[in-house]
User: What shape does this take?
Amino acid sequence: MTGTINAIENNINHNIQGAIFDVDGTLLDSMSVWEDIGERYLISLGIMAKDGLGDALHTMSLEQGAVYLKEEYRLEKTVPQIVKEVLKIVSDFYRFEAPLKPGVKETLEWMSKQQIRMVVATSGNKELVEAALDRNGILKYFETLQAKPESIVAFEDAFHAAETAKKAGFRVIGVYDVSNEENISRMREVCDCYYDRMDEVIKYDQVASINVV
Assistant: This one.
């Protein structure tokens, strides 16, 4: 195993200058809060959610979901009140609950030792993301990054994000998340590597496939 790790270190040091990490589903095990936010909200009100609520809310915006909850469950609240209370649940989840995915800290520590600069890329709320990363002890690993796409590896859990990163010229490492289970076969096709947990990227010979040929 030592020989394998040394070979990986040499290849990465020569070819990879930076790494970009998606947050939800890649660094943080946080997709569940978005998938069952309607149920979480109703539970906070002492109301039992009906079957299929998550599917009903899946394609709705936050405001549309608030209207749906108000009408379907006859809530005596305004739509802005519902939106505010839902966002408070999400905020508390990131600040106090959202855990790291398996192997994340080990991978970031290893990359830091290889002097690979790392950044996060997310469409989520910056303050909440930073709070979650800081609470989990990994915010310190991230900084600004200036490098060409071909010298950067992107870590993604979702197919469309991985596909976009690949088209942009990045080498892509896919990381399993249960929320994207239906797209595992497509992830394996589009990604340079695909792993069940992030730290497998520093354990196995397959990591060599992310190196420049």
